[in-house]
Amino acid sequence: MICIPKMKAKEAEPTYILRGQDGPLEYISASRLNCWMGCRRKFYFRYVLKLPTCTSPALHVGKSVHNALQDWNHGRWAAKPLAREELQKRFYAHWDSELKDNPVTWKTEQDEIDQCQHSWKVQETYLDSNSIPQEEALEGVEVRIEAELDDLPPLLGIVDLVREGGRIVDFKTAAKTPNEETAAFTHSTQLSLYALLYREATGKEESGMELHHLIKTKQPKVLVQKLKPVTDRKITELNDTLHRYVDSVIDEDWTPSPNFMCGSCEFFEQCKQWKGAVA
Predict the structure, then answer these.
(1) From 224's CA, which of 6, 25, 94, 251 has a CA 20 to 30 Å away?
(2) Which among 68, 96, 129 is the end of a domain?
(3) Where does the PD-(D/E)XK endonuclease-like domain start and stop, copy by copy (predicted)?
(4) CA separation for the pair 66, 69 (Å, rounded)
(5) Same structural domain for residues 148 and 21?
(6) What is the model's pTM?
């Protein structure tokens, strides 16, 4: 089990909107934590005000591919592997279902058709890569793990895949081949959280981490990035970050982080017109 050093709780009481059901202090996930680390004001718009946003084509592709991979791995886990034709049908069904729930603005109708077809090609490229041997037993697929630690809201993670022997796998879609060193660093918070949750749930250390990159280039590629188990130093850094997250949300610190990515932020206009948090 993981020993997390206790820290003195703050005396301030968070408002109901922060600590209530589905508030940012109801639980902490990797997506919430990463958004907060990237820009606290973006975090405020997304997780406190819950402003509606439009799903981008890239996000839609990622969700559709991820959902089909989940079906594929569930079949393997249950020893009832899906035929390629059946998986293709499910992929298209996921594509349409996601569009119904989260509409996307495409450049043209043909753009959607082209992206859908190419996304299935990306999916097939991963299946053909046999990155996880067909005969390998899987420990878990889309594993939901929760943990209660001192002085923190509950931690929540949904792990894409746990391979035989306790290797944690996370699937990523990317527009171009990532730099492996950069990818390991940028995803380190998420991987550290998954490792912490896995250790809390099983009482043992993961045997390693893997990032499976499905790369959406004209000719799709697959990059499997194998990483060592998360270090104690990374777990300590994560612990510090989790407490800073809680403290800043309680303090209602929505300081922005202006950078060259602001122009593509879904909350750019709201941020420009910022006049302070809603009481």
Answers:
(1) 94
(2) 129
(3) 28-272
(4) 5
(5) yes
(6) 0.90
